[in-house]
Amino acid sequence: MPLHFELVTPAKLVRSEDVHMVVVPGAEGEFGVLEGHAPFMSTIRDGAVQIYKTEGGVPESIDIRGGFAEVSETGLTVLAEHVEG
Amino acid sequence: MASLKELKDRIGSVKSTQKITKAKQMVAAAKLRRAQAAAEAARPYAARLSEVMASLAGKVSGDSAPILLRGTGSTQRHLLVVINTDKGLCGGLNSNIVKAAKVKAKELIANGKDVRFYLVGKKGRAPIKREYPERISKHFDTSNVRTPGFEEAEAVASELIAMFEAGDFDVAHLVSPIFKSALVQDPTVAQLIPVPAPETGSTAGGDAVVEYEPGEEEILEELLPRYVKTQIFGGLLEREASEQGASMTAMDNATRNAGDLIQALTIKYNRSRQAAITTELIEIIAGAEAL
To answer: What is the ipTM, given to two decimal places?
Structure first.
């Protein structure tokens, strides 16, 4: 089952896709989000979001700064202030 | 009646004006597309943010809520954040924005409130200064950057929040144009600080227990400044799109008017030329007949 992942910045919608897992740098430690994660919200610290498109695949990482992540039944939404590159 | 030469010069000057307005119209049309795309690209973030705000604001209330949400408890001192453009040649856009700001200011002053202005963009400075010279507290210049981005919004927002925390004002309103189409840009007045509690009716699935890390209040504390920033960023983007849209329409009209004027002047020029030739002919014929 894929996880719907969205990465949004004020300037644009950077990503909106179905992935296997995303590792988010939370303020109190990194956390991985898989499909069916319990509703959850956290602020994030500056760091890299790692996106695993498939199980065991090589992660794609995107550097983000400032923002927060929200997990709801519709998927994971990361609202970041800046996205590098 | 104007002489032939005068008419000719006049036609030439109107023609060169038309060239300018036509060029400006085309530039605005090209920029409009980009500005509109930018304004549209910013909407998902704002929408998500207010969703999250709505779900959080309902949970944190009372005295534990951050000051940005509950306010200072007073509504005596108001700050009007007015977003104007930096450049002219965009029809009635700026005067409409200033008009909306003045209406709001008048209403507040009539209610005995203290009103101050925080101006963004060059074009609002003069007309507001004329009416309320002692009420302008600050001016933020955006004319040195080509397209105002998130950095500018961040700078404005942090300055506003610093002023709020220092107790310079109790309530802030944002006056900015909303881009509807190239023909319609309506100025709107919206409350900025304290952050108005969003409607919570639309949040479905409220029964699910959401876990917060670190905690609701900490997240909200971080969220509110961001919300103010996003609001101002949205205002700047809308301003950009509105400026280009209004400019395009105004310049289209100006080009058409110049065309009409050129046509009228050309007819007048040809008539006087013909009249001059006829007079000359009559003089020659009369002279020949007299011999």
So the answer is: 0.80
Residue B268 domain-assigned?
Answer: no
The pTM of this model reads 0.83
Domains, chain A, ordered by start: 3-83 (2.60.15.10)
b/e map of B121-143 (b: 16 or more CB within 10 Å)? bbbbbebbeeebeeebebebebe
Query: Which residues form the domain of B101?
Result: 23-199+211-251
Residue ranges of A 6-35 with Cβ closer than 8 A to chain B? 6, 8-13, 26-28
Q: Each residue of B263-282: b (16+ CB within 10 Å) or e?
A: eebeeebeebeeeeeeeeee
Determine contact: B156 vs chain A, CB below 8 A: no
Of all residues in chain B, the one with the smallest CA distance to A40 is B211
Q: Is B91 a member of any domain?
A: yes
* Count of structural domains within chain B: 1
Query: Does residue B288 fall inside a structural domain?
Result: no
Is B48 within 8 Å of A41 when comparing Cβ atoms? no
CB contact under 8 A, A28 and B149: no
Mutate one of A6, A8, A37, A45 to test the B interface: name it (highest B CB count within 10 A): A8
- For residue B78, the domain's CATH number is 3.40.1380.10
User: Is residue B207 less than 8 Å (CB to CB) from chain A?
Assistant: no
User: Residue B181: pLDDT band by 50, 70, 90 thresholds?
Assistant: confident
Rounded-to-integer distance, Cα B106 and Cα B100, Å: 10
**Predicted confidence (pLDDT) per residue in B220-267, tens digit:** 888 888 888 888 998 899 899 999 999 999 999 999 999 999 999 999
